[in-house]
């Protein structure tokens, strides 16, 4: 059992935004953690169903209890026992969602170390917004309706639309919108088709895939609001709504949604991608790097891989590491050619790295694909910090992209 941690020196989390961390990633993640925390996580990995005392955990970690608590707060944003509680709740939710007819709330609670069932139900409700029994009932109801032909077809279209939506290109965006619209017709009370559509309409508005950006943005916000109301406990739908809000520059709302996503599902690669991009937009390049790497470890393949690579490239650009930024973005675009909008960062990075001839060649290639690109349009596309956007605009101008 490993933690997906924020790096030392990243901005501290407040009580609202403490991020639950976890997953089967110990060998990959523990190099970023102090040895005391790595030992604690290894010891806890097979004991989440057992009583845990801080003194015992500290002894297994080789440090004093107060030292271990300080290390957990610094690197994981919570206390050792707070981390245990979050992981137990998250694992219990996964088991409730997967529970068959013979599953019981009591048995699942006991299997995850909860012996006071009233307290378990209260903590679970505070974390996920519903009682454990309600989760189990809804999961059984959903499986009972899985034989319905409309539901089955909607599910097929949703997953096809999701893969297209995350390619983030004009053609794939249109394909995703068509599939999501049909899925919404077949299953009008499902959140995910509307959330996918919201994400795609926001792409159209931000990246210039359509001719009516203001209308597209309004459509994205309307659908994101509907999806969030229909699926307040659907982590995937909420992560897509967060993406739509992000591109509409409603960053505080997007941040709240993605925190809720990761509270419900600490192992969501979709959630960690959005968490990383939000950190990148906020200028927290260290946090963005760590969070995007978390996503890559959880899903090291498409449709997320190229967006992670592009996001890491943006984090390097923000930190002034232009050659590294260009390499990451180039690999990301090579894996997802429809995401040519990211080449703006590649062009600007090459210009700032001193490779001006290469920057100009890249700019000419980009302008053949993105004929309406200007420095002003690029600056309006993303909610990065003003400093990031100034350097992006300056690099594009040096490479020959028209200013207006």
Summarize the structure.
This protein is 70% helix and 0% strand. It is an all-alpha fold and 404 residues long.
Structure report:
It is a single chain. This protein has 22 helices and no strands. Residues 1-31 have low confidence and may be disordered. By secondary structure, it is mainly α. The chain has 4 domains: 1-78, no CATH class; 93-144, Orthogonal Bundle (Arc Repressor Mutant, subunit A); 146-266, Tetratricopeptide repeat domain (Serine Threonine Protein Phosphatase 5, Tetratricopeptide repeat); 273-404, Tetratricopeptide repeat domain (Serine Threonine Protein Phosphatase 5, Tetratricopeptide repeat), CATH 1.25.40.10.
Keywords:
404 residues; mainly alpha; Arc Repressor Mutant, subunit A; Serine Threonine Protein Phosphatase 5, Tetratricopeptide repeat; 4 domains; 22 helices; 70% helix; 0% strand; disordered N terminus
**Architecture per CATH nomenclature, i.e. the level-2 architecture of the largest domain:** Alpha Horseshoe
| CATH-assigned homologous superfamily of the largest domain | Tetratricopeptide repeat domain
Low-confidence stretches: 1-31
The amount of helix comes to 55-70%
Topology:
Layout: H1 26-29, H2 35-45, H3 54-61, H4 65-76, H5 80-98, H6 105-111, H7 117-128, H8 132-144, H9 149-165, H10 170-186, H11 191-207, H12 213-230, H13 235-247, H14 251-264, H15 269-281, H16 285-298, H17 305-318, H18 322-335, H19 343-352, H20 356-369, H21 375-381, H22 386-398
Helix pairs in contact: 2-3, 5-8, 9-10, 9-11, 10-11, 11-12, 11-13, 12-13, 13-14, 13-15, 14-15, 15-16, 15-17, 16-17, 17-18, 18-19, 19-20, 19-22, 21-22
